[in-house]
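Q: Entry one of two.
A:
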Amino acid sequence: MAKNNKSNEQESQIDYAAKEKENAALFDQLTNKNQEYMIKLNRRLDDANMSGERKTIIFNDMLKKIVAEQANHVTARSLYGTVTDQARYLIEGKQGVVEQPEERSESWKLWLDGALLLGGMFAVITGISYFTGNEGAGLGLLTLILNFILGGFAVMIITKYAPRPGVKGGFLKYVLATTLTMVVWIMLMAFGTALIPAALNPVIPGPYTLAIGLVAFLAKWYLKKKLDIKGTLI
């Protein structure tokens, strides 16, 4: 009983006018999408007859967190779930599902996973062409190694710019990064291979090239689990 009296006393001492003024200032800092989220949530709480004082306190905490996370391109929905979920939680105490930004591993892990993916894919395609009529198909040793190295960097860059669940924006950067990275990778492979003397770049026959590609895929699958690599393209 004493605890409830203390809580009521603390609530009575809250300057709601100051909180509302602060909320208005925080609301103006929100993106259009986050403002829309708060407006819809306010309507839901009004429909549930929640008191203005209660909403003022709740919104003050929410707005501060949303404004702080906007710098990281995290939306209100990412923080609190859908408007329906958040309203249900505030009214009934039932927490909805909040979509969290996907975690990504260190750069060297992403490079390793990408090298095995793109290098292995290139080797497999070349090896398959040998068995489909192109008996001269094969990759030079240094060309193969260069493809793994550069392919790893290409996938690492693309992965870092790939849109993540729970994080707003970045799609245009992803498209530009992907296009530029692939163009640079193809040009480096084309010109780099042409500059390598044939004596230093012996051709690996198609069957062996295919085998190397398959081993790379198996290594990718194994190391992804072994090293717990997260946030990869595949």
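Q: Entry two of two.
A:
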Amino acid sequence: MISIIHHCSMASKCKTVLLVLLLVVVVVVVECNPANYRDALSKSLLFFQGQRSGRLPPDQQLKWRSNSALFDGRLANVDLSGGYYDAGDNVKFNFPMAFTTTMLSWGTIEYGKRMGPEIKEARAAIRWATDYLLKCATSTPGRLYVGVGDPNVDHKCWERPEDMDTLRTVYWVSPQNPGSDVAAETAAALAAASIVFRTVDPTYSKLLLRNAQKVYQFAYQHQGSYSTSLGSAVCPFYCSYSGFKDELLWGAAWLFRATNAVYYYNLVKSLGADDQPDIFSWDNKYAGAHVLLSRRALLNGDKNFEQYKQEAENFMCKILPNSPSSSTQYTQGGLMYKLPDSNLQYVTSITFLLTTYSKYMAATKHTFNCGGGVLVTPNTLRSIAKRQVDYILGENPLKMSYMVGYGSYFPKRIHHRGSSLPSLSAHPQAIGCDGGFQPFYYSMNPNPNILVGAIVGGPNQNDGFPDDRGDYSHSEPATYINAALVGPLAYFAGTASH
């Protein structure tokens, strides 16, 4: 380069130097190219179409899926078709499904204005769940249906949802066999969704809220854990390990947000908030309830909610890596690491609380202190949340996107029946219960159907990921992993400039 310049005229020297500078700029731009949050948001919502149970609508975009489980509920003489398969299996577990619905709704309430055209997809994803949850709540007086499909039988099979030939056992809770956890979470889902539809479909919104109040009353009056009532039908799969008091608080908090009624405020106060975990998930709702309730203290200056603001901030101090009270591990690559099984579910849920509390703080220029001179600003929380989102989307040691179909390098062998088995159009013959193991489950080939937008369980504590279909704790996607990330993706899509 130098010798060429040496023999060139001054004008061409300038051109060459300019070209070099341009190349440097291009390289820098490529290297610092931010994640495309808008694309990730779109895909994170498309994923829910791949999890649909029941009769698929004409506008179904993931064409490799077809109608399935059309006669769910028949064993109880009710129609329980619809809803979502929770993960890579063919069971409908209402406890995580209701939490998924609550989180999708909360994300849409907080970040709907940043979603752009995707808000229609968000509402469609929520409604697919709430239509089913309404059936579960209203089909038989005195019963709340809480699941379809025997997990112990289903988990021994590897077959497409379209081919299911396993017994579609129906499970419910009642005053005699209570389930305050699943009922209060269902109430939270219906109440949160009622806010989403308040202006776009007021009639539907009122229906959701009316049933949310009824289901919550049932949860509160007949207290008990659904794990005790249903045993091996839900444990160890979605056992309510944290008990049901967190759901009673969460449900009351959502009903208070939806109604502003003193009755629910009094319930919230009576339930207290003595548990202060460092986790937030489909099982443990305390941190979510604290952040939800803290909004009144931060945005409205309501001193009655000061306690929840304090608890929300105690939670944040347990998450921040440099806080004296931090109890959260981070991998060398910067990923929050909570538990070995499906760690990304905790990452996405906690990230949602980080962006949301940051948003509340920013609105009032609020800051707080974790002790040891650690001052927390809205940007402190936002930066950690962004780091988690970016890690999931590919900014990690493996340079792998943990969202299927996003970027050029993502998991190809996810633990998911429909994705790993050929579609009906490619393989019209039925694949029985055992028929999917050979040659599909044990194959090293990539899955034939791309479950676009699915976020898998994620890497291990050393930032490693084997991309192995059999390693479900890392390779299985789940509705509640995705649902919690929709809000943060919308948040960053709305603030990014690209």
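A: Comment on entry two: The chain has 19 helices and seven strands. Confidence is low (pLDDT under 50) at residues 1-32.
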